[in-house]
Design a protein that fits this description.
six-stranded antiparallel β-sheet; alpha+beta; globular
Length: about 400
Amino acid sequence: MTTITNRFVAAERALRTAAPHQLLDAVRRVLTDQYAADSVELFLADYGLTVLQPVSVLPRTLQPVAVHNSPAGRAFGAQEPHVETLSGELVRAHLPVTVRGDRLGVLTVTLPGGEHAEGCLGELAEIAEVLGHEVFVAERDTDLYLQARRRDRLTLAAEMQWQLLPGRSCVRPEYELGAQLEPAYAIFGDNFDWSASADRLSLYVTNGMGEGIEASLLTNLAINALRNARRAGLSIDDQAALADQAVYAHYRGRCYLSMLMLDFDLATGRVRVVDAGSPRMLRLRRGGVERVPFDAQLPLGMFEETDYVVQESDVEPGDRLVFVSDGVYGVASPGGEAYGDAALARAIQSTRLLPAAEVPRAILREVTGHRGRSTPDDDALVVCLDWRGR
């Protein structure tokens, strides 16, 4: 047991002391030396959540791996180690690389099978978790991991929007969150943001206005105004008022944006809501899906010094909340039929067994099928919140 403990400590130390761009080299060395690994590869999920991209020096020698029909994708989707048996008494272990529920990718390790693999699989899974934390921190100092996530070049507007986001999923004892934006490589103004404390969860769903850089600049201004107000300890209605003033002061009503703001009490499930526009919320409760309407108020920045009123609602353990922008419920089929709440309710029902992190991508695939073509006219956003409560 002492030897096993020492080799895990060696692996952890190697990752924590490695240069930001050399994390993969560090984990390769220590897994080869301490765990008799034959090969070690790191794959990160691309922005569209369709493939796992290899992390390597350009030009890459490995091919991307599909998320939905590959052994590595199985580990990524289930968030559990998946082991393949290879020829020559080797096995290949695919291990989720995740930070507090935010699914980054998969660490793939080929090593001797049998008792050796069984004896170290748990430690390898923990090393993959440590690697995830180190990748998350390293992204402040190197572009390597951000570059590895790209199948294609991002537009500048998309680059700005992705840098603004908190992550794509989050897990805490009280809830699970998952979110996705499309088209991933050319998004404009739609956005989501969240922040949690010991007692509260703040969640913001934004339906942006305009296209390209202008849409991204507008959203960046509003989100940072909200963060500034939230970090100053202001209530959710005062946060909305401050962001409204910031946007109006800059655009004088020419541009504005819609937002649904929610503040959850983690202990009681009480929710304080400000509905400033068009994002919608649907709730799956005890097998039934229904839209939860709120009193619509003016979008942020439309007029000077708008006062916002808080409404209250509640969530129960087992509830699933799905939030969508108009790029989802308003998308038209080739025949001109809007996707609408009925189709969205069916999609929520059909994905009820999926974890929250996988629901947004699954619903967006349904929307693409309804649209009948891969290229949308507007960006689309889906956020899924599974509420467990305390």
